[in-house]
Amino acid sequence: MSTVSPVNRETAVVDSVNKELFIGGKWQQAEGGKTLPVYDPATGKVLCEVADASVADGKAALDAAVAAQHDWAQVAPRERGEILRRAYQLLVDRKDELGLLMTMEMGKPLAEATGEIQYAAEFFRWFAEEAVRIDGGYAVAPNGSGRFLVMKQPVGPSILITPWNFPMAMGGRKIGPAIAAGCTMVMKPASQTPLSMLALAGILSEAGLPDGVLNVITTNKTGEVMEPMIRDGRARKLSFTGSTGVGRKLLEQCADNVMRTSMELGGNAPFMVFDDADLDAAVEGCMTAKMRNIGEACTAANRIYVQRGIVDEFSRRLVERMAALPMGRGTEDGVVVGPLIDEAAVTKVTGLVDDAKQRGATVLTGGSAVDGPGNFYQATVLTDVPQDSRIAREEIFGPVAPITPFDTEDEVIASANDTEYGLVSYIYTSDLNRALRVSERLDTGMIGLNQGLVSNPAAPFGGVKQSGLGREGGTVGIEEFLETKYVAIGLQA
Ligand code: NAP
Questions:
Q1: pLDDT tier for residue 492 given thresholds of 50, 70 and 90
Q2: Taking the model in full, what pTM does it have?
Q3: In angstroms, rounded to a whole number, what is the distance separating the alpha carbons of residues 91 and 89?
Q4: What is the pLDDT of residue 2?
Q5: Among residues 123, 309, 332, 375, which one has the fewest Cβ atoms lying within 10 Å of its Cβ?
Q6: Where are the active-site residues found (predicted)?
Q7: What's the rounded Cα separation, in Å, for the pair 348 and 269?
């Protein structure tokens, strides 16, 4: 039996992470020894300080990535794959410690954090397998007089930016394919959750990643540090996961140098339950789609549309489940509703619920923030939520399930598509014809059909409309980090 107390274990995992910048394979302080605090969202207390990079530190990280690009692109695909495979194994072997570290900085329940480490690890395993499958082509020109040779090459030095809600998986989803494709990179994790990424940098180094291939900078002068790097002209790719607002700004910055971009942005997922659905499965799926990550997910069910004949029974069952969810610090046994990331998140959720109430919605359970310490909001179910309420238009990013009844298929499709977002939609029905009909008419990059979870490293993740550009994962994920070059071959008779 372990003799280490839970508090000592928490301190030990935070202490075990190197908190400096990782540039050119070396850990180093930020310019002037500057640091920024990382908070525990469950207590509001400072967990530790990490390096706060300056503009010059950002440039040094880009210099290192640029310097390493040529040699890295020459490394055999099998060797790149082996590094990824070793990283996969190290993540899996250490998932308990890494999960605890993530819960400390981000707040999600320990079981979910450990699950995210496994999910992140799977990107490394998947792209270890993809590294050796980069293909090309050879074809006879249509007029028979020449030949086409098509080759795939790494895009080049890449800038990667990730959000706080999945501190390890969002990084793995970019670093995995970048390594597989032969790109070097500068990674900037969210300033609220830098520890998981710093731990990952250590693991990749241990797995044999050459110096300079991955550089990690942490900063809270984010715009000031990142913009010159993006505008510098040497990075050839920006892969961003975060809000649509910041994504738009970054697209503008990329325009000057016509940089390749991948944008994984916000969502406003409709969750549709038709009256022929298996109600038990629909409630279960709704709990997953709503409560994964305490509702702080781009894929979270944001608008729950239930056909009128079953809305009362569906709501009753959902309320029963939501009201019973244990709330508390993510490190406590059995907790499902952990703290939100910060006070601003609680204020936002409070505002959305109040607005819905003012417009006629009814609170079936929950409906308020919880007094501190920590940033807690009750698991909440609202019903009769009008389509024009703010909660139906903005990302909630909290444990609130807003239900709106509907009558017809056409009506629910129109409501589902009535948003600038188009990341994921969920459909519950037992009618295959309806499932396909509705799937084809939804403006969305992904659909969960009788399933409340779509994320899978082997599948193409991404959105349409203002939810983003490009796809991560699946067989297309590596393409985001590859350029296609065509050689026109003239044949002498
Ligand atoms: P965010 O505010 O857009 O921040 C995301 C990242 O961008 C952070 O690292 C942030 O750094 C950085 N950033 C902010 N301003 C920047 C600027 N001017 N220049 C360069 N970088 C900048 O989003 P968030 O609140 O962390 O994450 C939640 C959002 O991400 C939600 O909208 C969610 O839907 C979306 N998301 C999408 C997906 C997807 O796959 N589609 C997955 C997860 C999350 P700082 O932390 O230092 O501010």
A1: confident
A2: 0.98
A3: 5
A4: 54
A5: 309
A6: 264
A7: 18
Beta 468-469 vs 376-377: how paired, if at all? unpaired
Cα dihedral value 438, 401, 113, 342, nearest 10: 130
Alpha carbon of 163 to ligand 1 centroid (Å): 4
Question: What mean pLDDT is predicted for residues 134-144?
Answer: 96
Query: What is the per-residue pLDDT for 7?
Result: 85
Three-class SS state of 6: helix
Contacts of 259 (CB under 8 A, 6+ apart): 230, 235, 236, 237, 238
Lookup: tokens for 12: 């030990």
The percentage of residues in the chain with a pLDDT greater than 70, rounded to a whole number, is 99
CB-based contact 192:14 (threshold 8 Å): no
**CATH class as words, domain 6-266+469-485:** alpha beta
User: CATH 3.40.309.10 occupies which residues in the chain?
Assistant: 269-420+424-456
**Can you tell me whether residue 113 is helix, strand or coil?**
helix
Count the residues in the chain.
493
Q: What mean pLDDT do residues 332-341 have?
A: 97
How far is ligand 1, taken at its centre, from the CA of residue 189, in Å? 9
31 contact partners, CB below 8 Å, separation of at least 6: 53, 54, 56, 57
What residues does CATH 3.40.605.10 cover in the chain? 6-266+469-485
Of 419, 421, 375, nearest in space to 399 by CA? 375
Q: Say how far apart CA 177 and CA 376 lie, in whole Å.
A: 36
Active site (annotated) includes residue 313? no
How many angstroms does the Cα of residue 67 sit away from the middle of ligand 1? 28
